[in-house]
Predict the 3D structure of the following.
Amino acid sequence: MNLRILRKKIKSIANVKKITRAMQLVSAVKMKKAQQEAIETIPYRTFLEKIILKSMSQVDKAHSPLLSSKTNNNKYLYIVISSNKGLCGFFNFSIFKFINNQIDLKNSEFIVLGKKAANFISKIGGKIIADFSTINFNNAVSPIFTESLKKFLIGDYEMVFLIYNHFISATKFETIKTQLLPTTISYIKKVETKEKINEYLIEPDPKTVIDEVLKNLIEEKIRGAIIESQAAEHSARMLAMKNATDNAGEIIYNLTLLRNKVRQEKITNELLDMVSAKISVESN
């Protein structure tokens, strides 16, 4: 192999390594920020569920349309959260695999947040009723909540679910499906709490208060899912870029050995030519 070509390849891969290393560091910083935001949303969401739990003794499901479905048409709405960009390992593939294996497209419609999910669902023939991929993810909470709530209340869907990558740690995430409507209390169960559930004095009336608290809870669940998904995305990208950086270093090492070998062979051949020429001159 040509020595000049080898040098160009080594230089090119070294530049790629610098880029992947920088992307790895940037993703690590973004992941820590998103992780902190995800942690900070949990206490408020938990507090809302405590209020609902302690008020349930005075509230019947009939008090709020958010607590029960108006239809039994077996039609479901899925809010799918993916990423707009690639280079994040199997982050998006995990979402695609889950949808492909777990979701019946005939009885399902989708609200998507993320271009990758929008492209995949369109390719497999899923029906997308709203796509919020072009706006800032944090600004998409309110329109997603409004659209899904409106469709649920008019009886278009029996249930509404969230599908997203739940952030577990810096090296691990899991694709999960969470029920959004009808609302369920997932963080706190009555049998798990040792607190005495006192009756609240609810004013002006249980229906008005519970409706507003439930709406806040649903909106916070959407916001929490988006933040967790972003943390998982940055985590996956950080790991992908780390692997790319390590692979680039290994390739550079192997190419450097090959370059040294080629250069040594070239020097050896030149010496042989010189010796052969000297012997030829002396024999003549």
The domain at 34-241 is CATH 3.40.1380.10 (Pyruvate Kinase; Chain: A, domain 1). The longest strand covers residues 159-169. The chain has a mean pLDDT of 86.
